[in-house]
Amino acid sequence: MKPRVKICCISSIDEADVAIRAGASALGLVGKMPSGPGVISDEEIYEIAQTVPPPIATFLLTSETDSLDIIEHHKLVQTNTIQIVDKLHFGTYQEIYETIPSVKIVQVIHVLDESSVDDACEIAKMVDAILLDSGNPNLDVKELGGTGRIHNWELSKRIVETCGKPVFLAGGINAGNIRDAFEKVQPFGFDLCSSVRTNGRLDERKLDEFFQAIDKI
Predict the structure, then answer these.
(1) Of 44, 47, 149, 181, whose CB neighbour count within 10 A is largest?
(2) What percent of the chain has pLDDT over 70?
(3) Would you tell me how many other CB atoms lie within 10 Å of the CB of residue 97?
């Protein structure tokens, strides 16, 4: 089965339409973040999410770390998926599911070292999917995504092999390395942002090149 593709940092209804026509099966809509690209208002996220037809997934990227705050954030935007980009410090995933039973939860793991493998496998028991990225939540100004950096794919491969849930791979993915990434990691899907943009805007030529590369896998 070909890997799914999530296009992140969608900033408008037009960009959502371009990504879907190119072949995206999921769209990332970025809420307020301490750093990184693609942030739009909750009002814009709501407007975009309402135009996206099923079965395309709409991911709210939230930096909230309390389950109650995540629930409140989701109420404002009404996406069908919540992508938690930082650790859940307060509350539980179960509280989110009980309040919003229709939602899917994707937890981001920033792959830093061996401990990331254990974290991913433990958290995978409680969520629908894992997304592996190359940020660093331990910095004074947290990096929670959109870095464009490649992390250690050997660690990512181990997570895919052992966590028991679908895994998206993010961080420096582009048309030139997609085959290598797929062969080494074997993820369920890929997540990309900067590699399909020019001057911050979604670039149809780069999108086409990427999906042509996916078709050759």
Answers:
(1) 181
(2) 95
(3) 17
